[in-house]
Amino acid sequence: MKFYYDLHLHSCLSPCGSDEMTPADLAAMCALAGLDIVALTDHNTCGNCAAFCQAAQERGLLALAGMELCTQEDIHVVCLFPDPEHAERFSAYVSEHLPPFSNDPEVFGRQLYMDGEDNILGEEERMLAASTDISVEEVPALAAEYGGFAFPAHIDRPSFSLLGVLGLWDSSLNFPLAELSHSCPADFIRRPDLEGLRFVTNSDAHYLDQIWGAERSMDLPERTGEAVMAWLAGTEK
Ligand SMILES: [Zn+2]
Ligand SMILES: [Zn+2]
Predict the structure, then answer these.
(1) How many whole angstroms from 204 Cα to the centroid of ligand 2?
(2) pTM beyond cutoff 0.85
(3) How far is ligand 2, taken at its centre, from the CA of residue 139, in Å?
(4) Which of 49, 93, 187, 217 is buried deepest, with most CB atoms within 10 A?
């Protein structure tokens, strides 16, 4: 069956994410947009994932818990987990690998923890959108240790992307899949170094009006977290 997905979304916990991106409003907007499968991927944290997954499930969506990890090389990698519990354990590990910088909400934006009913639970004081000391080559195995799957984000963009930083696709890093941004030119994937790679395209929405309608789909035997993870990994039957 065909399911419309968006697996890269930011909430108000990302400093660059709009304060309007509350877990509840984000889930409501995704449902309104006609999406079937969604994932919350804030910068270096899964802190709003439980609230988002609950709000999304209540609206009939399948929601995965995730994170957009920033590696020590300044490469963004989307990491997805089957449930908030696995994601939170991964998030606790990443938290120990963040630099001790404080966020300046005036300059970078607020970082709000919220429940699924639009209540503010607190504010993160550390700067979440910083590079961790985790190297890109560690990420596939590290995510898998927590039951997750990782793919480099927006590889066609010049900044914070694997190709922007490394210049060439390195297949020894063991990423079978990469994300293209919405504005990626159609002939980009004909680069010889990308041969054999599979791709997803997500919105990377930071504002409610950046959430797409039903545009990108995946074919799954059933709409479950396991089926999505297998589809991403290319191990589906
Ligand atoms: Zn990014
Ligand atoms: Zn992002």
Answers:
(1) 5
(2) yes
(3) 17
(4) 49
